[in-house]
Structures are given as C-alpha cells and as structure tokens.
Design a protein that fits this description.
Number of helices of chain B: 11
Strand order of the largest sheet of chain A: 1-9-8-7-6-2-3
Helix content of chain B: 25-40%
Number of strands of chain B: 8
Distance between the termini of chain A: 46 Å
Oligomer: heterodimer
Order of helices and strands of chain A: EHEEHEEEHHEHEEHHHEEHHH
Number of domains of chain A: 2
Strand content of chain B: 5-15%
Number of strands of chain A: 11
Order of helices and strands of chain B: HEEHEHEHEEEHHEHHHHH
Number of helices of chain A: 11
Largest sheet of chain B: 5 strands, mixed
Structural class of chain B: alpha/beta
Strand content of chain A: 15-25%
Shape of chain A: globular
Largest sheet of chain A: 7 strands, mixed
Radius of gyration of chain B: 20 Å
C-alpha cells in the first residue's frame, strides 16, 4: 500500500482536503483541559501529534450524553421518535494507537453479537480510523503488555508517525488508500521508512511489564487479596472508567418536560455505588471491593472470554489520573508475579 | 530517607506497638517517583512504608469518617489535611479521642503537570525533595532546583497556613512562600458567569471532586438522588452548573481549601478557585474560617448576635 509523507507545514491543507470527502473528527485543543474529539470547524486548533493527554475518542462514537428517543404526548396520542445520528463518511484523526484498538473493543460490544446498537453503528459505520504514533512514547503506556500490537495495525486505516518536521503516513487497510490521495503529500525516502520503523520498534518494546506473557487473564483470581488492597484506598470515583477509551457502560434515563419525554443515555460506571443498586434496595456489589474487582476482571478476563479481545489496551490514562495512585500496571504485576497459571487438567 | 520521614516511622511504630491506635494512615511511595499513594498500616513491622516528600498530595482525612468510626487511628497529616480533620470533628463525623494526629510543618506540594510544563520528562524523574522554598528535582540526567511558583500546586501558592493547627505530635518546620499568588478571577458578574460556564461545561460528572473531598461525606449525595431529582446525570452544561454550584453552596463555610477537588479533576476544572471564593465570602461576612480549631461549631450550626442579616445585606 502507498505510504506517504505529510510535511507538518502542510497539515492544514491535508485536513482541508480530507474535509472535502469526509467529516473530519480530531482532537481539538481546549483551555486548561485535555483536547477533545469533535467534528472540526473554523477556528479549531487540531492536535494531531499525540503528544498530550486527550479525552478518549469514545466520547465521539459513544457520546457522554446522547438522546435516544423523544416522546410527545397529546390527548389520546403518543408519538415516539427515535433520534438517530447521520451515517456520514467520517475520518477520525489524531488518536493514539491504543485508543484506536479500544474502539475494536467497543465494536465487539455494540456491533457484534445479539444486539447491534443503532446509535453507535450509525457513527461508526463509515468511519475510518487514523492513529498517531507520537515522537515520544508516553510514560504510562503499557500497550505491548496487553496484546501483540502487530495485530492492531490492520484494525486502523492508517498510522501517522511523528518524524519531527513530517508525518509518515502508513496506510494499513485497503480503504485507507482514500486518505492519501491528496497531491500535497510526498513520497517517503528510505530515511523516512527507517524513522517510521524505529518508532514502531519503540512502541513495541515500550512499557513491557514483567507479567507480560500474554496470559495474565488466566491468572486473575476472584479471591485475590489485591482487591481488598485496592478497595481500601479507592475513593469510588469514575475517573478511571470515564477516561478509559474502552469502558462502555452507560445509564439510560427518562426526563419529562411538559408534554414530552426525552430518553437519553449517559456514562455510568461499575465504580459507583448505585451502578448495581436494585429497586428493592439490594446491592449485589455492596462495597468497593467487588467494584474494584469487577473493573479489572471485566477488562482482563471476562471480555477476553466473551470476545477474544483484552478490554485494556494500555493507554495509561487511569495510571496517570487515578486520584489515589491505583496503578493498573502494578496490580497486574502483583497478581501475575506470584501465581503461575494452573496447568489444564 | 529524611529525618522527618524516620521520625514519622518511629512514631507510627510506637503508637501501634503500645496499642494507642489500631491503624496508621499515611503516604507510601507511589508507583512512580512523582506520586505517592495512601497506605493503611496495622502492623508495626510495616511502618517503613511511610514516606514524606513534596508529592504527598492526598488529603488522607477523606478516609476518617469510615475508618475511625469504631477504632483508634493515627493519621499523618499536612496542615490543610488537619483543617479537614478539625471540620470533621466539629461536624461530629469523627471523634477527637479516636484520633492520633501526626502533624507536619509543610513547604508546599508539587503539581506533576507543572513539571511537564517545565520541560521535565516525568519518566526521567528519580526523586523530588524540598529545597528551601523550592523543589530539588533529581532526574536521570542530574538535578536541578525549581522555584515554588514553577512547580507547586496552585492551592499551595496561595497558602499561608503551613503550621499544623491541631496535633498530638508535630514534626518539621513550615516554609512560607515569600510571595502569595494574586487572584486572577474576572471581577464583573457577566464575565464570571462566562468563566464558570466554560469551566463547568468541561465536567464529565466522574465525581472525583466529591469522592476525594473529606468534607463531602453525605451518605447519599443530592446528585445521586432520584426522588426528588435535583440534577440529571447527563453531563451537559446546565446540569453540570447545578451540580457544581450546589456542591459549592454545600461546602460554604465548610471547605478548608486543600484543593484536592482541583487536583483530581481529569478535565482541569478550577474547582478550588470556586471554593476559595466561597471561603473568602464567609470570612468577609462572618469572620469565620473553616477548619480553625478556635471555632467551636460549624458556621451554619451557629448563631451569633452580630451575624449579618442576609435579607438586609444582599450584595
């Protein structure tokens, strides 16, 4: 496939060219806050080099708040209107590769299996993913510990490697060819190819933790003492899951306004007390211990069993942002260091 | 290990061994050198886990209402953390006799994101130490000293209360900042409205600010109530405004300005500024400061004859 070079001073032209064919979604700079993925407009400053913490791209595909349907009532009449997003050709730029892989996890949840979520599907259907490989690996990344990252490449349509004054655009899927048709792009030199390969090798070897034998999901035990250790310090906020690129749990609420009702969905997390609280007052996860266990077991064990993918892609946001420094890397190291997988009987 | 650190450990060992307390809450080394993590020690053999350095950010008082309910607990605490403890005692959330406070003179806490802004690669950091008013940063390439204004948390740059106000034992001397950072908030009401609208619109409703706050101890927060529903769960500007404004009002006269809410916010909402506004209003109108042991009761639980009448003093 035809790889290309995008000189950084031509980035604006490149984005404009893409904008003639696609709705372009990219991390847009915000004041005092991580950049956020949105459909870019005039005046937006786009951050394409992956050098900073950004909101997870799931915020675009699975918005924090989204109207599902509206109901209007008149005497003797009830009208239900689903509110579906448009299925437009889109391209998402500037996401870290682990974030792009996290979208694979979301796809498993919302597109495959018994139920296909029409809202997610509409945004995702014609959306191409372009990942970025920043010039410097982020300290909190441990992507290569969670999976064989070579397998991730075909899941995106292109990867943009930051080579300083230029991006090396590696096309990784047949439809990704459509992304590099712009005449402002140049042919890569052999030095460029070497630079790209160097970055890829860095990514593959960065943050590889001692536990990484690719089998840690077999070693997570339900009754491990680590859950109590985490639960003791965990304050039960939603930072880890709301910032996580693959956490997908949501709540559905109905809101009445006069004669109409809005049904919307919004974020929810297994870390909140009311997440599993029943109407009867019973709560199957009555305190923090089962909640802390759930988040990690779900990512590293249940999702692997269900979908064949690991629910964590090593983006490091929870590592960086946890208010009490529960470091998921440390947790996995501890759990896996002391226990070899039991031999199959 | 610094001298103060070793004295904290000795003290923890002593109070555990002589049975004065069942548990010591303090900070342990974090997973990276620029973070620490809360640690709960019930065995004197484990006291060497305790650390004291410029990244001991967490206000550990948040754990007290649950952990010190029915047992005696020693807590290692900065002056701001101690003001939280005082407020919790005044509000009957913890009993003074259940606490053994290991108070520390403070020289300000580091904001790791400022280190990044100062072009220090976080992964290069090996240690952070106090150096007078500034911070010595030991990296793989050597070491350098940065001024407090370059590296300290915003809250610390405005803090002059660096001596513990209540303690059973005290270690270390306070280092006061030589210059207090001036306020930067807009003055005009419409500008302030715009400023806070922008701030709150960022909120993702993760509730980290509420969960980390020692004085947000309600068993069921108004924001989680369904009947009646005070604010919807959706993260939209108007609902976010409702959440943050109500939380601020609930903390008026109670917030002790530790700035934990702002530290943990993943989207950089300047919550601590709002809290500082509230505290200043309370100070100006009622001459009351939350977390001051001189006060016998919480502001809203007290009546003084010279209290102003809000009906006559709407500003």
């Amino acid at each position: 496939m035809a790889d290309k070079i995008l000189p950084k001073d031509k980035t604006e032209g490149f984005i404009q060219a893409l904008g003639r064919k696609f709705v372009v979604v990219a991390p847009v700079e915000r004041k005092d806050a991580p950049a956020e993925f949105k459909e870019i407009g005039a005046g937006d400053k786009v951050i394409l080099d992956g050098s900073q913490m950004m909101m997870p791209p799931k915020d675009y595909l699975l918005p924090r708040y989204e109207t599902l349907l509206k109901v209007s009532t008149r005497p003797g009449e009830v009208e239900v209107q689903p509110v579906l997003p448009d299925e437009k050709p889109r391209v998402m730029l500037g996401m870290w590769l682990p974030d792009a892989q996290a979208i694979q996890v979301l796809d498993k949840v919302f597109l495959e299996g018994k139920f296909r979520d029409p809202y997610y599907a509409a945004r995702r259907a014609n959306t191409m993913l372009v990942a970025v490989m920043p010039a410097q690996m982020r300290w909190s990344w441990f992507c290569a510990s969670t999976d064989d990252v070579e397998k991730w490449k075909p899941n995106v349509d292109a990867i943009m490697y930051d080579l300083g004054d230029r991006f090396y655009i590696e096309v990784t899927s047949p439809r990704g060819e459509a992304l590099v048709e712009w005449e402002g792009l140049a042919e890569p030199s052999s030095e460029d190819v070497a630079g790209k390969d160097r970055l890829w090798e860095q990514f593959k070897s960065h943050g590889v933790l001692p536990f990484s034998d690719g089998k840690f999901y077999e070693q997570l035990a339900w009754d491990h003492p680590i859950w109590a250790e985490i639960a003791q310090k965990c304050i039960g906020c939603g930072v880890c899951s709301y910032m996580c690129p693959s956490c997908s749990c949501f709540d559905i609420q109905d809101e009445v306004c006069g004669t109409c009702v809005e049904r919307y969905r919004c974020r929810d997390t297994c870390q909140f007390e009311d997440f599993t609280l029943m109407g009867s007052g019973h709560n199957p996860r009555p305190d923090q211990l089962p909640r802390s266990r759930q988040r990690l077991m779900h990512k590293f064990k249940y999702q692997h069993e269900q979908y064949g993918v690991v629910g964590c892609t090593g983006c490091g946001r929870c590592v960086e942002l946890c208010p009490v420094n529960v470091d998921i890397r440390e947790v996995l190291n501890k759990v896996c260091a002391e226990k070899e997988p039991e031999p199959a009987v | 290990m610094t001298e103060i650190e070793s004295r904290i450990r000795e003290e923890a060992k002593k109070v555990l061994e002589n049975g004065l307390v069942d548990l010591v809450i303090g900070w342990a080394a974090g997973s990276v050198p620029f973070r620490t993590t809360p640690v709960f020690i019930d065995n004197a053999q484990d006291v060497d886990k305790l650390v004291w350095n410029p990244v001991c950010a967490n206000n550990l008082a948040v754990y007290l209402p649950k952990m010190a309910k029915n047992r005696k607990v020693a807590i290692v605490a900065k002056p701001c953390d101690i003001r939280s403890i005082v407020a919790l005692i005044q509000e009957n959330q913890v009993k003074r006799e259940n606490l053994y406070i290991i108070g520390l003179g403070c020289a300000g806490v580091v904001d790791p994101s400022k280190l990044e802004s100062a072009a220090i690669r976080l992964s290069d950091i090996k240690a952070l130490e106090w150096e007078g008013e500034g911070i010595r940063i030991v990296t793989v390439d050597g070491e350098q000293v940065l001024r407090s204004t370059e590296v300290h948390r915003e809250m610390c740059l405005a803090c002059t209360k660096r001596e513990p106000a209540l303690y059973d034992v005290k270690f270390g001397e306070a280092v006061l900042p030589s210059q207090i950072k001036p306020r930067e908030l807009p003055e005009l009401p419409e500008e302030r409205q715009k400023y806070w609208s922008e701030q709150f619109s960022k909120c993702i409703r993760c509730y980290a600010c509420r969960q980390i706050c020692p004085n947000c101890y309600c068993e069921v927060c108004f924001a989680d109530r369904v009947e009646p529903k005070w604010t919807a769960k959706k993260a939209v500007p108007e609902e976010n405004w409702m959440f943050h404004a109500t939380r601020a009002m609930h903390l008026a006269g109670r917030c002790i300005q530790c700035g934990e809410c702002e530290r943990v916010c993943p989207v950089g909402i300047r919550i601590a500024e709002l809290m500082r506004e509230m505290a200043e209003a309370v100070k100006n109108k009622y001459d009351y400061e939350a977390g001051d042991p001189k006060e016998e009761a919480p502001l809203l639980g007290t009546f003084r004859e010279n209290d102003i009448d809000p009906a006559q003093h709407s500003e």
